[in-house]
Amino acid sequence: MPSRSIAVACALAAAPLLANAFDTRELQGLWAESAQNRYACTATNRYQRLELAADRRTLTITVEHRARAGKANAREHLALAVIRDEDHALTVRFVGHDDPGDPLFGDWQMSFLGPGVYRWHLVSKHESLQPAPIVVRCEP
Hints:
Layout lengths: L1 H18 L10 E5 L11 E7 L5 E8 L8 E13 L2 E6 L13 E7 L2 E6 L11 E6 L1
């Protein structure tokens, strides 16, 4: 009986931790961002696909430049180290952007505000110098 009580107590103690894990389904789809008061899902905007590695340590953003002259669907891949994942948010660092003068330097948080909407937020000391783009899911 005591071992059963210990097992139940451990399961109950772990439940809040499991409930607060980031749900990777929030990353699905084709995304576009806007830091201005403009519609994001236009043919001239850059589109993104987000993929969290199975070990949850790397987020890859594939950016598609649909309107780049002479290059149909030119793509680039950005690697981000996942520092922390929590309920509806990922805190990341752009790999290779280690110079404090680099605009991508620092810890960034992707805060999911609701289904199909997230916001970039610089959480390090340079926060006030950066815009906070809103990113919306354009296609499932």
